[in-house]
């Protein structure tokens, strides 16, 4: 047997004298030495138990030792360490339960952190904005800037307006370089106001960005310039509109070769409607010399043509806006409201500043202002008499502008580009331009910049720009009456409006905010606006009125405390304690309740304060995409990101459809691209799935309802009768643009409709409402007769009926899109005598249903948005453009060569539904030579009947034109989670269906 502790497995009995009792032993053992004696079971078991550490019964019963009656721990017994323990049962460390008593331990059998994630995630900072680490060194003191804020006559609020790549941001750089003492690299474009990383990467301004700078005119008098640099791309019109709302004047930038684009024409029209003053900056002077290589005389003609062309456009715009004769201004270098400039080569001059250079070289022996008057137009300098005359002294004599202005500039270009460096220094020294030794090794472009900086004086002649703006654009005090009239929706004669008109910085506080800028961490926003009257202090308790606020409904109002005030400077902010009227300000700590624009006044203001009108945009956000997070758990993060997008982009709209999908609307592809980029990187930090882009549609009718529609209320006590018919062409647009407003008195509204659209006076004066909003393109008319209807009872339910009508207009019956250009006429109403039986709960849904049934019986149609595209390309690409457009249901309106340049302009219309990828397609087919700017223009009917059930749509086959309306409607209904087709039973009562069947039967008799 096995041996343990030196004993055999079968133990011998305890005998003392083993050796002596041999006989006994023999009896006890057999011949093999095995024990065959009497059984000794009990003793052995006891021994075994003792050895295993189990106490015997006597010990357990005694219970006199500590811990008696309890089983002993295995390890306490001497021999415990020899027990065989399997590897998996060994225990080296205590359990979590033993260490942390009462804690719940959860065991995870596998790693829940994916391998792609680092165990310790790196700290991620959003270095998306290019910001200054500390306040930069400037040529002015910020205390001095704060002091100038109290002097309205020394302030100018201007906005740069111009097409893409016409030099606005580079011009802003000139102002920044002139005021910020930094080591600016001469050969590097900084684009200081493009302070977002994606703006730098794309090379396009996306956000309007402001800077407040102290600049000096030619007499070295300091002015505070609040300048807003705006995007030039047609998709970002909303940023420009926001900037115009804050400004008193506009610097219009026009590239001399490209001229005015259609997009800038529209923005200029908006500026003229806002009664802003405009000065002209003709940019790209260097392109005439370097690119087109025009001789100086031709360059003069090109410049003159450019200015005349802009003036013709202005004339046309003034006519459409209806500006009075005396307040019309046109551009002429002789008036001093035209600046010639090359942002790239850092030079600028007006005729007066150029004449001043001549005056300086001749020791002011003549009046330079008189000379300036002779430097434009058909004037020639007679060398012999020393006078200017109207006819040329000799045939080859150039005009004065060519001789005195252009030729010196041409000569500087010629010498810098063509002369040896050693000779160049001597040549330039003759005209008082001295080059540093190290400048001689610069490339030609940088050398020219250095030369022009000396040739035109400080910063390349910035003082000439300051002079022009100071003279032709009014300060905030002079312009306040126009601003208040255009922006303030309240009583123009009230105390609040009077304070704003007088720009009283001790009066009632009124601030108009139009933009929100995110903080560097992208978690919070600061609001940017203009103080219209009073003075805003840090720590003020203010009332914030949102866009939905009115004197009757003050739900959209919150009270907050102003935590910070800054002057916004593009890449940095300067904190101030207070901001007086007439200045721009960035306010921190109040953004919680502000969505787009807001009106801010002091919490203690008891006057009847109304809001500043929300921004009106000359375009619509008609392109939309549906988005969802890649990981469903990140939905709250995405929703929060969408709220921030709403604040950041003035025209973006976000909406949740019935089906639960989140839809973002924007003006175009690059606009939506920027929104989605911001959502992924800045505001959400999540991955999103994006559906294919689609467009917003509208629903309309083309005939009058085929019969008088009626609907009963659920309690069967009231009956409403209505018909629908199309509105006159252009009337919907007039309502949308605010040319007629429902809050005018009925006589005024009646006159507008009867004079302009030939409505009879009775109908024109019984207009109840526009829908879906107060400026929506649908009209509800009361066409009931006093003999049939009790007008007093009808007036009682009028509000409920208007609500039902507006609800119907917001979500049409075809596919839940807005109704457009439809006139709904109320023909009759049978109402219950008891007021309780004709409450809102009965009337509103019924009024909506009867509007739907009238709409469906009036030959409904779908409308789609159409975009206007302006394409610039060389002459040999025009044919390719026709091909691309014809494949996308587009058509060319006109194509014409651009005078004085090798380019062609093509104007085309293109349905927005077909515009996705149009730009890329265009570039592919023209080898990248065509540039296009596309913007929303108008609505047009989609070909085909959306309710024609005989149309069969085959999957993966493009539908022919007559089937498009049906295809669009069905696909949209599927996407929104609606039933497959429009159901008649939903909108028609049973009696109405019987009436329809009866009419149908009567018709059948005649065929």
Could you walk me through the main structural features you see in this protein, from its secondary elements to its overall organization?
The chain is of the alpha+beta class and 1007 residues long. The strands form seven sheets. An eight-stranded antiparallel sheet has the order 14-13-19-10-11-18-15-16. It has a seven-stranded mixed sheet with strand order 2-3-1-4-5-6-7, with helices on both faces. Strands 25, 30, 32, 33, 34 and 35 form a six-stranded mixed sheet that branches. Helix 11 (296-321) crosses helix 14 (400-418), helix 14 (400-418) packs across helix 16 (444-455) and helix 25 packs across helix 26 (840-856). The longest helix has 26 residues, at 296-321. It is globular. Mean pLDDT is 87; it is low at 1-20 and 53-79.
Give structural attributes.
disordered N terminus; single chain; 1007 residues; seven-stranded mixed sheet; eight-stranded antiparallel sheet; alpha+beta
Structure, briefly:
The protein has 1007 residues and is an alpha+beta fold. Strands 14-13-19-10-11-18-15-16 form an eight-stranded antiparallel sheet. It has a seven-stranded mixed sheet with strand order 2-3-1-4-5-6-7, sandwiched between helices. Strands 25, 30, 32, 33, 34 and 35 form a six-stranded mixed sheet that branches.
Overall average pLDDT: 87
Classify the beta-strand content into a percent band.
Answer: 15-25%
| Structure annotation, total helices | 31
Quote the distance from N terminus to C terminus. 118 Å
Give the SSE layout.
Blueprint: H1 22-28, H2 41-52, H3 57-62, H4 96-99, H5 142-148, E1 155-162, H6 168-179, H7 197-202, E2 209-216, E3 222-229, H8 237-246, E4 249-255, H9 262-273, E5 277-283, H10 285-290, H11 296-321, E6 338-342, E7 347-349, H12 351-361, H13 368-373, E8 380-382, E9 387-389, H14 400-418, H15 421-430, H16 444-455, H17 462-472, H18 476-487, H19 495-501, E10 510-518, E11 525-533, E12 535-537, E13 541-545, E14 557-561, E15 564-568, E16 573-575, E17 578-580, E18 584-588, E19 598-602, E20 623-629, H20 635-648, E21 653-656, E22 662-666, H21 669-683, E23 688-690, E24 694-695, E25 698-701, E26 709-712, E27 719-726, H22 731-736, H23 746-757, H24 761-765, E28 767-771, E29 778-782, H25 791-810, E30 818-819, E31 822-830, H26 840-856, E32 860-874, H27 878-886, E33 891-897, E34 903-911, H28 918-925, E35 931-941, H29 964-976, H30 984-987, H31 990-1005
Parallel strand pairs: 1-3, 1-4, 4-5, 5-6, 25-30, 29-31
Antiparallel strand pairs: 2-3, 6-7, 8-9, 10-11, 10-19, 11-18, 12-17, 13-14, 13-19, 15-16, 15-18, 20-22, 20-23, 20-24, 21-22, 25-32, 26-27, 27-31, 28-29, 32-34, 32-35, 33-34
């Amino acid at each position: 047997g096995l041996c343990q502790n030196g004993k055999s497995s079968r133990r011998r009995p305890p005998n003392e004298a083993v050796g002596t009792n041999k006989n006994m032993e023999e009896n006890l053992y057999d011949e093999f030495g095995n024990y065959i004696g009497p059984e000794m079971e009990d003793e052995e078991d006891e021994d075994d138990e003792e050895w295993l550490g189990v106490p015997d019964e006597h010990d357990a019963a005694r219970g006199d030792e500590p811990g008696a009656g309890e089983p002993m721990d295995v390890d306490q017994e001497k021999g415990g360490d020899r027990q065989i323990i399997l590897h998996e049962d060994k225990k080296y460390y205590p359990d979590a339960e033993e260490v942390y008593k009462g804690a719940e331990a959860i065991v995870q059998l596998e790693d829940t952190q994916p391998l792609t994630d680092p165990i310790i995630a790196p700290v991620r900072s959003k270095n998306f904005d290019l910001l200054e680490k500390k306040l930069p060194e400037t040529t002015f003191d910020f205390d001095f800037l704060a002091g100038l804020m109290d002097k309205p006559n020394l302030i100018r609020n201007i906005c740069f307006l111009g097409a893409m790549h016409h030099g606005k941001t580079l011009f802003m750089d000139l102002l920044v370089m002139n005021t910020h003492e930094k080591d600016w690299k001469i050969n590097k474009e900084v684009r200081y106001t493009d302070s977002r990383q994606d703006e730098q990467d794309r090379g396009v301004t996306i956000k309007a960005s402001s800077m407040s700078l102290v600049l000096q005119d030619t007499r070295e008098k300091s002015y505070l310039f609040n300048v807003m640099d705006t995007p030039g791309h047609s998709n970002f019109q909303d940023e420009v509109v926001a900037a115009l709302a804050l400004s008193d004047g506009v610097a219009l930038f026009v590239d001399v070769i490209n001229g005015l684009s259609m997009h800038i024409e529209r923005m200029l029209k908006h500026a003229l409607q806002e009664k802003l003053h405009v000065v002209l900056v003709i940019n790209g002077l260097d392109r005439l010399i370097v690119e087109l290589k025009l001789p100086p005389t031709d360059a003069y003609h090109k410049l003159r043509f450019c200015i005349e062309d802009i003036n013709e456009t202005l004339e046309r715009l003034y006519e459409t806006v209806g500006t009075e004769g005396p307040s019309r201004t046109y551009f002429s270098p002789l008036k001093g409201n035209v600046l010639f400039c090359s942002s790239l080569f850092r030079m600028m001059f007006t005729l007066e500043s150029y004449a001043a250079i001549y005056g300086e070289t001749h020791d002011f022996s003549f009046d330079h202002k008189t000379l300036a008057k002779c430097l434009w137009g058909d004037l020639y300098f007679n060398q012999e008499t020393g006078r200017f005359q109207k006819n040329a002294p000799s045939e080859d004599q150039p005009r004065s502008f060519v001789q005195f202005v252009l030729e010196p500039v041409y000569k500087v270009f010629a010498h810098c580009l063509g002369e040896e460096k050693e000779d160049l220094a001597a040549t330039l020294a003759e005209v008082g331009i001295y080059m540093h030794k190290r400048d001689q090794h610069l490339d030609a472009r940088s050398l020219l910049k250095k030369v022009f900086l000396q040739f035109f004086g400080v910063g390349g002649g910035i003082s000439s720009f300051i002079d022009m703006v100071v003279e032709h654009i009014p300060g905030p005090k002079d312009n306040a009456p126009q601003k208040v009239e255009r922006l303030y929706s309240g009583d123009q004669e009230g105390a609040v409006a009077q304070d704003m008109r007088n720009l009283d910085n001790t009066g009632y506080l009124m601030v108009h905010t139009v933009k929100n800028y995110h903080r560097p961490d992208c978690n919070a926003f600061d609001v940017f606006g203009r103080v219209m009257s009073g003075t805003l202090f840090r720590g003020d308790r203010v009332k914030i009125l949102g866009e939905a606020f009115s004197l009757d409904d003050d739900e959209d109002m919150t009270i907050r405390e102003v935590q910070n005030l800054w002057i916004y400077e593009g890449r940095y902010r300067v904190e101030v304690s207070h901001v007086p009227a007439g200045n721009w300000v960035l306010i921190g700590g109040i953004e919680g309740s502000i969505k787009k624009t807001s009106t801010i006044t002091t919490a203690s203001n008891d006057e009847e304060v109304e809001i500043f009108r929300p921004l009106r945009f000359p375009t619509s956000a008609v392109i939309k995409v549906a988005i969802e997070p890649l990981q469903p758990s990140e939905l709250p993060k995405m929703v929060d990101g969408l709220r921030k997008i709403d604040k950041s982009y003035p025209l973006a709209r976000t909406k949740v459809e019935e089906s639960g999908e989140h839809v973002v609307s924007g003006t175009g592809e690059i606009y939506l691209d920027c929104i989605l980029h911001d959502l992924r990187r800045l505001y959400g930090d999540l991955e999103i799935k994006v559906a294919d882009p689609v467009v917003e549609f509208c629903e309309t009718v083309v005939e009058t309802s085929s019969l008088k529609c009626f609907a009963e209320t659920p309690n069967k006590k009231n009956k409403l009768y209505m018909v629908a018919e199309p509105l006159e062409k252009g009337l919907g647009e007039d309502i949308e643009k605010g040319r007629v407003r429902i809050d005018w008195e009925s006589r005024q509204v009646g006159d507008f409709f009867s004079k302009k659209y030939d409505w009879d006076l009775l109908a024109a004066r019984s207009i109840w409402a526009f829908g879906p909003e107060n400026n929506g393109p649908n009209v509800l008319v009361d066409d009931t007769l006093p003999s049939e209807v009790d007008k007093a009872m009808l007036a009682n339910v009028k509000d409920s009926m208007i609500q039902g009508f507006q609800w119907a207009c917001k979500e049409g019956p075809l596919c839940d899109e807005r109704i457009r250009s439809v006139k709904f006429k109320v023909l009759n109403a049978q109402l219950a005598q008891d007021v309780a039986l004709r409450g809102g709960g009965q009337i509103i849904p019924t009024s909506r249903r009867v509007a739907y049934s009238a709409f469906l019986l009036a030959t409904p149609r779908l409308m789609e948005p159409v975009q206007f595209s302006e394409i610039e390309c060389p002459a040999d690409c025009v044919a390719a453009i026709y091909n691309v457009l014809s494949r996308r249901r587009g058509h060319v309106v006109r194509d014409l060569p651009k005078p004085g340049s090798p380019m062609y302009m093509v104007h085309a219309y293109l349905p927005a539904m077909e515009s996705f990828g149009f730009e890329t397609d265009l570039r592919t087919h023209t080898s990248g030579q065509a540039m296009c700017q596309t913007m929303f223009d108008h609505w047009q009917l989609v070909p085909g009947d959306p309710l024609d059930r005989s149309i069969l749509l085959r999957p993966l086959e493009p539908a022919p034109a007559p089937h498009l309306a049906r295809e669009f409607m069905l696909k949209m209904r599927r996407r929104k989670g609606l039933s497959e087709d429009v159901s008649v039973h939903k909108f028609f009562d049973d009696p109405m269906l019987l009436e329809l069947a009866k009419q149908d039967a009567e018709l059948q008799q005649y065929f």
